[in-house]
């Protein structure tokens, strides 16, 4: 199975994940009882799913959510006090020893634990009081695709469970993802911007910080492009100075509270002479090339956009004469300590 096959399998994978975990709502709801904050352990692509959790669980559930520093639990042997924390591990394989040790320490300190993984028999899952099975099936491609998207959907499901809300808002996701893939079937003009580029900036804000970092990561690992991810606010506080004539800027400007700022930024980058590719679900958005996607509730938009940015990164890799199936120096499971 190719990376492209796995990208196109995502609507079905998300549907499976939602069905597989529908019976966990009560268990998930109980995890936040008495919790004052959430600590998440993750690496690589899973870190970007954790960034999504920071915004979703923060905005919708009013929880303070932080990404832990696994080396404190491993080489430095100085684990912090986890009093009041719900401790979450997010990992495709559930194999990385440093992430497993974070959950093991949480258990030693008597804290509630949640594992979000594609292997419910993994070491990470064995340390967790509650396990969300991504149910993505085997992911053979080295770049994470369907496991990332199901992680986002799992975070969204957990948010609704934490709040005691109905799961209905998630029912549309497989159809919206399929529509997004259909709209993004031809990305040739959009990826031509990166065919000969050495670097680019990827800019967004809010819920799409996860998308910004994941889009940049996919371009780094598949297309070997120096892609820098930025919050729009941070970008304007200095890094914008790198933008000159012909510099590629990828902007995520979807409906919601951050749309006006991102649309203005895209227009400003065009005035500077940048090559601007805008990913949007709003008509008439600024950009030299606009990649369209269907509109959903703003907090769910990263789940719908995920297959699009993956397709874009794959197409850009091919445009640069590279093989998206075999990123150099990478393997499917990376064990860090």
Structure overview:
With 337 residues, the chain is of the alpha/beta class. It has two domains: 3-171, 3-Layer(aba) Sandwich (Rossmann fold), CATH 3.40.50; 175-319, Rossmann fold (3-Layer(aba) Sandwich). It has 13 helices and ten strands. The strands form two sheets. A five-stranded parallel sheet has the order 2-1-3-4-5, with helices on both faces. It has a five-stranded parallel sheet with strand order 7-6-8-9-10, sandwiched between helices. α5 (97-108) links the parallel β3 and β4. The chain is globular, with a radius of gyration of 19 Å. The two termini are 30 Å apart. The mean pLDDT is 93.
CATH architecture of the largest domain: 3-Layer(aba) Sandwich
User: Order of strands across the biggest sheet?
Assistant: 2-1-3-4-5
**Biggest sheet details:** 5 strands, parallel
Radius of gyration: 19 Å
Number of helices: 13
- Which class of secondary structure composition applies to the elements? alpha/beta
H-E order: HHHEHEEHEHEHHHEHEHEHEEH
What top-tier CATH class of the largest domain fits best? Alpha Beta
What is the H level of CATH, i.e. the homologous superfamily of the largest domain? Glucose-6-phosphate isomerase like protein, domain 1
3D shape: globular
What is the average of the pLDDT values? 93
By DSSP, the count of extended strands is 10
Query: In the residues, how many domains can be counted?
Result: 2
| CATH topology-level fold name of the largest domain | Rossmann fold
> What low-confidence regions span 5 or more consecutive residues with pLDDT below 50?
none
